[in-house]
Amino acid sequence: MTTAPQPVIEAAVAASPDLLWQALRDPARIRRWHGWEYDGEDGLDAEITQIYFDGVSEDASSRTLTLQGGDRFTLTPCGDATTVRITRTPKGRNPEWDDWYEDITEGWTTFLQQLRFGLERHDLAERRTLHLDGPTGGVTAAHLLGVDAVVGDPGSRYSATAATGDPLSGTVWFRSPTQLGLTVDGWGPGLLMLGVLPGSPQRPDGGAQIVMSTYGQGAEEFAALADRWGSWWDTRASAGSCDCG
After folding, report:
1. 119-130 as b/e: b if 16+ CB within 10 A
2. Are residues 120 and 66 in the same domain?
3. Residues 93, 176 within the same domain
4. Residues 94, 183: one domain?
5. Fewer CB within 10 Å: N-end or C-end of the chain?
6. CA distance from start to end of the chain
7. CA angle, residues 155, 14, 24, in degrees to nearest 5
8. In terms of domains, do 60 and 179 share one?
9. How many domains does the chain divide into?
10. pLDDT tens track of the chain, all 245 residues?
11. Are 64 and 134 part of one and the same domain?
12. Which segments of the chain are extended strands (E)?
């Protein structure tokens, strides 16, 4: 019998296991790193309850959290840091989610880096977050934004002008085969996550995703930033350079 592989996503976070456990068990703390704000009855708070509390099994003594779908968080002390490991349930265990299995794996990668950044840089302070995504005809978010020339290793400095006209500078925060994370000094500093949306029956050619987290911005300043980036994204779609949603 062949056992389906279980993807593992992990990161070393410069925080104690106790702080990380609180970040996984307090809804107010979770909303400061998980996902992004969006409208509707099934907004971020409802999503947090569904994922992290409904049908969840937790063991505070071993710092292990098993979600309803079978994905498992484990926290392991490692010197002055804590290794956060997310072990995915095997594909096929929940057939109704199989079409989105790779999307969820990529999502956990993004969220884990948001957790790491929020804790290490801002002690989980309040943030403002914008999410843009859609099919792009195989073009990456980094290329669309004009930052694909940023090639340094994590920790290296970069400077670039985004296709939106915004000057960006900071450090490379994270890099994987499918995602790039950049700190942005002018956002508090903030975090810019650029990722790939895997192909699926609903999205045969895949797509791209941008998640922007800002800190210390007022409502008007963030609204102007969101309007500028949202208009740029929509223009890319209407111009036909990519079939963005």
Report:
1. bebbebeebbbb
2. yes
3. no
4. no
5. N
6. 41
7. 120
8. no
9. 2
10. 445 678 999 999 999 999 999 999 999 999 999 999 887 667 899 999 999 999 999 999 999 999 999 999 999 999 999 999 999 999 988 888 888 899 999 999 999 999 999 999 999 999 999 999 988 888 899 999 999 999 899 999 999 999 999 999 999 999 999 999 999 999 999 999 999 888 877 777 888 999 999 999 999 999 999 999 999 999 875 443 433 33
11. no
12. 8-13, 57-59, 64-66, 72-78, 81-87, 128-134, 157-161, 167-175, 179-184, 190-197, 207-214
Domain limit, last residue, from 86, 101, 124: 124
Burial of 208 (0-12, 13-18, 19+ CB in 10 A): buried
Q: Which domain holds residue 106?
A: 1-124
Q: Which tokens belong to 205? A: 């050619």
Residue 154 has which token pair?
């994590």
Amino acid identity at 153: D
